[in-house]
Amino acid sequence: MRLARLALFAAAAAVSLTSAAQPLTATNPDVVNVRAAQPKKVYVDPLMYQHMQGAYKLDDGRTLHVTGKGRKLYADLGDGPQEIVHVGRDRFEAVGKDVSVRFDGAPFPDAVHIRDDAGRVLASSQR
Question: Which of 36, 69, 70, 76 is deepest in the core (most CB within 10 A)?
């Protein structure tokens, strides 16, 4: 009895392994279906959202203006407002630019650091 169950289990496993090895698209084996990962939304604490808005005098002489509209934030370094997207903790990325902004001191930010895509600090400020 045990041997019959074991043989039945082995046959079922072999059938399932061969069916799993079949390609998803039998009509065109050159097509690969790729599904993009859905990024998880990162929310900003409403208190931090409110307190991070304002003007930051940067050490290179420029002024960073952070404004909000709806639930979006915009950073303006003098070349027009750019939307910044929260990517985690205190970090934001500018949409369409290779610039990241980090606010220190959550939920009451007292410093900001602006970096390029290589990680070099372009400017920083203390409030």
Answer: 76
DSSP code per residue over 69-101: ETTEEEEESSS--EEEEEEETTEEEETTSSEEE
**Distance from first CA to last CA of the chain, Å, rounded?**
79
pLDDT digits (tens, 9 = 90+) for 43-80: 778 888 898 999 999 999 999 999 999 888 999 998 89
Structure tokens at 14: 């072999």
Q: Looking at the whole model, is its pTM more than 0.70?
A: no
Q: Which fold has domain 46-126?
A: Lipocalin (2.40.128)
Give the amino acid at 29.
P
